[in-house]
Amino acid sequence: MKVKESSAYVKARCKLLSFYFSKRGWVVSDGTNNNILFYVSSDQPFLYTTEQLANIIAQSDFYIEPTGLKMSGVSYLFYHQGKLVNEVIVLPCIEFDTEL
Fold it and tell me: Per the domain annotation, does 95 fall within a domain?
C-alpha cells in the first residue's frame, strides 16, 4: 500500500475530534492514508464493539463544528495498550461537510 498524505478534511476533523474526545481521556491523532488514530488510555478497559464505536463517532457530529471541506472516506483506528484493537471505516454520503 502506498503511503499518501491525509486529505484536508481528515486533518481538520481530527483537530475537532481531538478536543471532543479529550473529555473521555482519549488521545486523537491524524495519520496517513486518511486514518484518524484513537489512543484509549491503558487505565480504561476497552469493551467497545465496532457498532458501538461507529455510534460514538456518529454522535460526535452533533457536538463538533462542520469543516466545510470536501469529505473523504476515513478509517478510524483504535489503539489500547499499544495494540490496534478495532477499526471503523466511514465513507462520505454527501460531498461537503456542512451543517446536519
Answer: no
Count CB atoms within 10 A of the CB of residue 61.
15
Q: Within a domain: residue 54?
A: yes
Identify each DSSP E strand in the chain by its residue range: 27-30, 35-40, 74-80, 83-90
**CA distance linking residue 97 with residue 9, whole number of Å:** 8
Q: 39 and 14 in contact (C-beta within 8 Å)? A: no
Q: Is residue 49 part of a domain?
A: yes
> Model pTM?
0.91
Query: pLDDT tens-digit profile of 44-69?
Result: 999 999 999 999 999 999 999 999 89
CA distance 67 to 3: 24
Whether residue 39 lies inside any domain: the answer is yes
First to last CA, the chain: 34
